[in-house]
Amino acid sequence: MPFSDLALARRLELAEGRGCTAFADAHHRIDPECGAEWIESAGAYAIFDGVDSPVTQSFGLGVFETLTAEGLTSIEQFFADRGAVADHEVCPLAGVEALQLLTERGYSPIEISHVVYQPIEAPSREPNSGITVRAIGKDEADVWSNVSGRGWSLEHPELVEFLQQVGAITVERDDSVCFLAEIDGVPGAAGVLTINDGVALFAGSSTVPEMRRRGLQSALLIERMRYAADHGCDLAMMVAEAGSGSQRNAERQGFRVAYTRIKWRRTL
């Protein structure tokens, strides 16, 4: 198991940051008028996907370069020019000085999440009987979006509309594969896998309420882990709300916490 250190944090933050830049690129390809774009500045990725999009934020702040007032200003200006609030996902290994700068500039924490990881090995077990998991084609984007949105409807209703609209973008994104888990041919769970430099980011997993507790999430994890192993990945990661059921489920499947990350928003 790799140590939870700066080298690991850089791999994990880079994987998520590049996954989001690829999302913005895919959105722009599908709809050139949407305004989605990104920059790399001060060692971080700043992504704009619309004023209200959860993708609109930065990743890697202070992890790849020492954060300075000038560097932070350049990223803030990127968001301000597009009418967006400046949100930053900040790894604690960015250091005390980076956090002090954020507080001095009027930022406050708005979200706490755990970044979890584990080495990848091809799974030896199979999904429960009757369950199949498959990568979808681009023509199934609407089905995937519907399942994903319904799966998040109870825990995060604020995300439902976004998720029901992004299937085509997610399918179009480079180095990304969307999966559906089905029971007797009926889709009941959705998930995504994005790959960057040997890191497989497991994201977007949800199960529709009426098909929960039947092994669909476990099956999604098994088959995505198998896919990642087959495509040369050595490290798996997830991001889960701190203390959530998603975090507990990840730890039951062998993931462990690399670090606790805070999302900061400028409130002044």
From TrEMBL:
GO terms for molecular function: acyltransferase activity, transferring groups other than amino-acyl groups. Residues 131-268 form the N-acetyltransferase domain. InterPro entries: Acyl_CoA_acyltransferase, GNAT_dom. Keywords: Transferase. Pfam families: Acetyltransf_1 (PF00583). CDD domains: NAT_SF. The keyword Transmembrane does not apply. PROSITE patterns: GNAT. This is GNAT family N-acetyltransferase.
